[in-house]
Structure formats: C-alpha cells, structure tokens
What does this fold into?
Amino acid sequence: MLPVAGSMTTIKELSRKASPAGRPQPLAYLAGTLWMGSWDTDRLYAIDPRTWKVIEEIRAPGKPYGLAVWRDGLRVVVSLGEDDDRYFYQFRPGQGFDADSKTPCPDLTGSHLASDDSVLYMTQMGFRRILAFDAEGAVVREVALPTRCGGIGVRRGTFYMITADEEFENLELATLDVRMTNPAPKPVATIPFDARALAFDGERSWTSHREANEIVEFQVS
It folds into this structure.
C-alpha cells in the first residue's frame, strides 16, 4: 500500500559515494556496471558498484543528459552546440559512440531516458511529457505529465519517476502508469535532496545528487 497524505516516508539512503567527475547527471546499469554521465567533463564513466572504481571512460559528443540500456548497449541523449539541441546516440561499451546513429530528438529537446526492452522513453521538460519510441525510433505514444520530472526508470516492470514542483523543489519518488495518456503519479516517498536521474540494478536503486557531486544508492520498498 502506498503512503497516504501526511504519512509520506522518505527514501532510505544506503550509501553516498563521490562521483568520479563533477556534476553527475544520467545513470544506467548494464551488465554489472553503473554508467554515469558528467556535465563537467562531457564524458561517460563505467563504475564497478562493488569497488567504486572506474573501469572505462570515454568522451561524449556533447553534454550527456540521458542514459538507458537499449538493444546491445546504451542510448544517450546529448546536448550539442550553443542552442543546446538534443540528439540521440547509440553507445556500446568497449566500442564507443556510433557517429552514424546520431538522430535529432523530437523538437530538438529531451533529457531523461528509460527502457523496458521493447519501448524507449524520453522526458521533455518544456513540453511536460514523456515520449515512447519503438525499436525503429518512431514515437508511438505521448504521456502528459502533471509535474516536472527529474528522472525516470523501470524497476521490475514498474515505471518510476522523480516528481518536482514548479521551482524544482519538494521532490518525490512516484510510480506512473505510462500506458495511460494522462496518468497521475502515485507518490512512494519523499526525496530530501536535489536528485536527478534514476537507475535500477535489480536490487539497488541509484540517483545523482548532481550539485553535491555524489551518487546516492537508496532503497525502494
């Protein structure tokens, strides 16, 4: 049962670790490795979550905004140029970014990513929506959002998002039925810091405390 109004719990932090580079934003978990994108270095970092050692790093084509496991690698939203235009890239560990995969995001905007194997989801903050893409990259659904969004992820078949108010305060972790056109987020717990991005590794949950240069491991009930 979800908490009722007035009895909201706070997420249970399990650990806080220093980010390998400044201002960590997107996170994704692939094959035992936690991937992180840094806004200070415009690089991706592969982190062993057990030892917290960086096992791979690579320069991104621009500023990394979103990461999600997609096909046999990672899908990345990257900001390019002075106009902050957003593009999709495919990234494969050990191989790097596929320059031929560069594709403009709809309306050249987008940030957080999540996937459930067959569908890729991307948030568009300014339009207050989530777009769902099929395996061919076509938009198959648009999900209107009633709040601002600081991150999305899929955990054991359940879609989660970080909700925020207009000032990007009062953050909460919530579930969202993305099968609906106008779903209402169902709060699970409050988040007492300025969290960005969500990643799940099957057991643990991760988010970035970007301006503190930390990555937070937490528990979802």
Observations:
- The chain has a mean pLDDT of 93.
